[in-house]
Amino acid sequence: MRTPSTPGNSDNPGNAGNPGNPKLAADIALPSGLTAALHPGQMRRGRGADAIDDVTPAFVLTVRSDEDVVRVVDEARRAELAIVPAGGATKLGIGNIARALDLRVSLGGMASIIEHSPQDMVVTAQAGVSLARLNLALGKHGQRICIDQAADDRSTIGGIVACNATESFAYGYGTPRDLVLGMSVVDGKARLLNPGGKVVKNVSGYDLVRMFTGSYGTLGIITSVTLRTHPIPLAERALAIDCNDIVELETLRAALFASHLPLACLDFELARESGGWRAIVKIEGTAGEVDYQHECIEQIAPTRCHVFERAVPVRVAGRSNVVLRVSSKPSAVVATARAIADTIGDATEMPALAGRLGDGIMRVRIQEEDPRRALNFVRRMSEAAKQAEASVVIERAPSEIKRIIDVWGERPAGFALMRRLKDAFDPQGILSPGRFVGAL
Amino acid sequence: MTLAGQLRRRLRDVVGDEGFVDSAAGLRVYECDGYTMEKALPELVVLPANTDELSRVVRLCHREGVPFVPRGAGTGVSGGCLPYEIPVMIGTSRMRKIRRVDIANRLIEVEAGVVNLEVSRQVEAAGYYYAPDPSSQSACTIGGNVAENSGGPHTLKYGVTVNHLLGIEMVLPDGEIVRLERTNDITGYDLAGVFTGSEGTLGITTAATLRLMPKPQAVTTLLAIFPGIVEASRAVSAIIAAGIVPAALEMMDALVIEAVEAAYRFGFPPDAGAVLIIELDGLEAGLEELCGRVEDACRQAAASEVRRAANEAERALLWKSRKRAFGAMGRLAPNYCTQDGVVPRSKLPQIVEAIAEISSRYHLRIANLMHAGDGNIHPLVLYDDSNDNEAERVVAAGHEILTACVKLGGSLTGEHGIGVEKIELMSKSFSDDDLSAMADLRDAFNPTGLCNPHKIFPTDRACIEIKRPRPRGGG
Ligand SMILES: Cc1cc2nc3c(=O)[nH]c(=O)nc-3n(C[C@H](O)[C@H](O)[C@H](O)COP(=O)(O)OP(=O)(O)OC[C@H]3O[C@@H](n4cnc5c(N)ncnc54)[C@H](O)[C@@H]3O)c2cc1C
Fold first, then answer.
1. Mean pLDDT value across chain A
2. Residues facing A326 on adjacent strands
3. Banded pLDDT at B474 (limits 50, 70, 90)
4. How far is the CA of B60 from the centre of ligand 1 (A)?
5. Is A119 exposed, middle or buried (0-12, 13-18, 19+ CB in 10 A)?
6. Gap from B34 CA to chain A (nearest CA, Å)
7. Which residues have C-beta within 8 Å of that of residue B121, sequence separation ≥ 6?
8. In this predicted model, what pLDDT tens digit does every residue of A220-272 receive, in sequence order?
9. With a cut of 0.85, is the ipTM above it?
């Protein structure tokens, strides 16, 4: 994910606020239990830059330990104060507008790498460690976390796990759900839980790790995570393959998908400059394996395609205040992309379209200041996706739009069970209330 | 508890005569799974033919407040489907349809009773396979695999069941049918993910959508012979430290080798203290280099010999020796009990030492079989059930081993589950808060507690300990 254009993209307390914010949460006082337990430097009043969507929290609390988090949740639950946890704030734009927001709880102060055991290929880090810093530390031992983020210097590992966020690596390595082995998390009942463990295989009791991963801060506040690491490959290469038209892109996708090549990434983009379709693959392995895969791709690519080396996989430049995530299945991804591309024809500014051919997930981004036009854009895109049997999540949009549309789309099957889980783990509904699907 | 005649009749109406078992001889088959230390008879077994029938069976039980337990092939090894104080057993053996094969999207949807190996057979010709391969794969069912989140030798590189699960269709404990998606982009909580590994206590899987993998271009299987288990463990660490993730990295100690050699005559050297079976797969272009590095690592760790399987037949025999090692144990002792613990793989030497100490203190021979790359150990405690009190000692020794795993930073179970076998150890592994959180999860899915009670957690409602019947036969 790229930098949100909504205010408040940093938890740095020194960050200047945006004074002209429309909505301020009711003026509340911090519970005395909290003011007694936290250091004064850990608490301050919220300001415009802290707003999530257009709701400014009454207070911003910076927690420093698991115990701090337990204390904060416990006091909040007694006083019925709504909390939204925040890491590097790169993904706070995802979600519906919170029903209430009293405390923005920053995990940025919990940023130590607790333990890396290279032999076991496992690392435990506090939630506030950025992905880049974690990978830097692991890199010294020839290892890495196979999760990628555009803003990896700001995306924290806690936030990544809370959103099950990854990008191109999903094709070769799965999502964080496949990489998280254990965590510490404080649920809405103020219990400090330690589901999972530090070993790669573990089936003792229920795996609550999988429940908290991707729960977007609505069931608990993750304070640390244990992840499986992977070796850094001996060699790697990114290749771009320019197709002359979308039919070629589909031919190429189908051929690569059906091949035995263990690609790390298999992406595509609609090039903004040329309007052409481009596939981007990342190959990894020994030097011999990389050369071999490169050769295979040259052979697989339709004859008129242009294959060339490229520095990094898909990164979309430019600002955007509306971001839609569209998901289809591999066999329909190109058709979906085409339907989306056909629909954007008359937009004011050329939107960006890029995504993953391997698992069918793509993003459309646009910068559109006029809310009516933005809403119109969202509606047209959603309709086009629906026609292509794809689903849409609005990852970023002006608050005006979020007030009208549930950003998560329709309630999924099993929603009643989700509701029961929410009630069980956050009975007072104080954790990111209303932000998740079906206003959970 | 005896079932009312009316409920019996209704259940029989749903599944028909061919899906209804209540004769003494018929029920005997269902008195235990692969964990034979405890046994109990259900009052009846119903075998629904499809999801609709299964849902109606569950609805009836729910309405009458009658406990029920799901069962697949009964190869579980922790007593997960022991029908202790559970009148109705629901088997999936008649639910064996392949619902769809979708190669274009690399997935397959099968009913819960489909046997693991059958999934790979279905897609073999197209060049694909289903990666999780428990050693019991020719018998165990996909429903059982989901319930136990089963692994296998090849999970080191490719992950366990949950990493290959794209969705499930399930019947909730009140009979409602739900379909839970599990793509990379699910909206909402990962219900299918959290359900995986719940040992039949949160509901019954009726079908699963599984990820298919293209068969690797090339595979090489190596056999490395070591003077002892400590040297072999060192080689495991060295291979991983070299940045190599083999497809499989399995260890057998001298006792296992003895049994396996007697049964399958692979040609393991009689004086080997331990062997590693190391499988590397991927692109031909890289395999030779990887093999060379693995061989070096083994030699540096004092391997006396490293061989490559010369051909597919040799490779198959090597894997047969490994996957059927359990079956060969009968050659060493009349009975054995399989344990299943996990340690961080760097702690393998310590756990091996601990096991040796426990073995001599309890006067029990213990053979070691391990998914070494995962740190997942399977100590096989050998015993003779006809000796007085020996079975009790086996249970106690097993618990000590697992406690040692937890102390070393590992887990009580890597793939066999808690079942009834390890209930008492749960509180050693988890805090009260963690246990209460798990209970919250169970209550969200299974609020009446009718679905597979007395498993995983000490029964809280009646606060009774599971009674240990006098152990009878072995595995
Ligand atoms: C020789 C041998 C080797 C083995 N090797 C391995 C191995 O390498 N890796 C590994 O992980 N395991 C292994 N196992 C253990 C066992 O095979 C697995 O746990 C397997 O997944 C159980 O499948 P099953 O169909 O036999 O399930 P069962 O034994 O019938 O049931 C197991 C549990 O699942 C529940 N269950 C069954 N079906 C369903 C359903 N449809 N819905 C909900 N719950 C259900 C039951 O209630 C029970 O709690 C081995 C066992 C043996 C005997």
1. 90
2. A362, A392
3. very low
4. 26
5. middle
6. 17
7. none
8. 999 999 999 999 999 999 999 999 899 999 999 999 999 989 999 999 998 77
9. yes
What residues pair up with A60 in beta bridges, in sequence order?
A: A44, A104
**Helical axes B229-241 vs B284-300, angle rounded to 10°:** 140
Q: Which domains does chain B have, with CATH numbers?
A: 1-215 (3.30.465.10), 218-327 (3.30.70.2190), 333-417 (3.30.70.2740)
Residue A7 pLDDT > 50: no
The count of C-alpha atoms lying within 13 angstroms of the C-alpha of B115, restricted to the half-sphere facing its C-beta, is: 13
- Give me the mean pLDDT over the A350-375 stretch: 90
Question: Would the CB atoms of B188 and A412 count as touching at under 8 Å?
Answer: yes
Residue B112 CA to residue B115 CA, distance in Å, equals 8
Helix, strand, coil shares of chain B as percentages rounded to 5?
A: 40, 20, 40
Mean pLDDT confidence for B330-351: 93
Q: How far is the C-alpha of B11 from the C-alpha of A235, rounded, in Å? A: 61
DSSP B376-430: EEEEEEEE-TTSTTHHHHHHHHHHHHHHHHHHTT-BS-SSS--TTTTGGGHHHHS
pLDDT tens digits, one per residue of B186-216: 899 999 999 999 999 999 999 999 999 999 9
**Among B126, B193, B123, which Cα is nearest to B165's?**
B193
Pick the residue whose CA is nearest to atom 16 on ligand 1. Answer: B76
Residues 129-188 of B with CB under 8 A from A: 148-149, 151, 155-156, 159-160, 162-163, 172, 178-181, 183-188
CA-closest residue to ligand 1 atom 35:
B200
Q: Using a pLDDT cut of 90, give the percent of chain A over it.
A: 81
State yes or no: pLDDT of A1 exceeds 60: no
Give yes or no for residue B269 having a pLDDT over 70: yes
pLDDT at A308: 84
- For the record, the structure tokens of A41 come out as 């430097």
Min CA distance, A92 vs chain B (Å)? Answer: 16
Distance from CA of residue B431 to its chain's centroid?
Answer: 25
The pTM of this model reads 0.94
Calculate what percentage of chain B has a pLDDT beyond 70.
96
Q: How far is A337 from chain B (nearest CA, A)?
A: 17
Concatenating the DSSP letter of every residue in B200-262 gives TSS-EEEEEEEE-EEPPSEEEEEEEEESSHHHHHHHHHHHHHTT---SEEEEEEHHHHHHHHH
Task: Report chain B residues whose CB lies below 8 A from the CB of A195.
Answer: 434, 437
How far, in Å, CA of A337 to CA of A395, rounded? 18
In the structure encoding, which two tokens stand for residue B356, read together? Answer: 């040796």
* Inter-chain residue contact A289 with B196, CB threshold 8 Å: no
Could you give all domains of chain A from N- to C-terminal order, each with its CATH number?
13-108+425-439 (3.30.465.10), 113-231 (3.30.465.10), 235-307 (3.30.70.260), 322-402 (3.30.70.360)
**Tokens describing residue B152:** 């296998």
DSSP string, A100-138: --SEEEE-TT---EEEEEGGGTEEEEETT-BHHHHHHHH
For ligand 1, atom 28, the nearest C-alpha belongs to: B74
B414 part of contact set with chain A, CB < 8 Å: yes
Quickly state the pLDDT bin for A25 (edges 50, 70, 90): very low
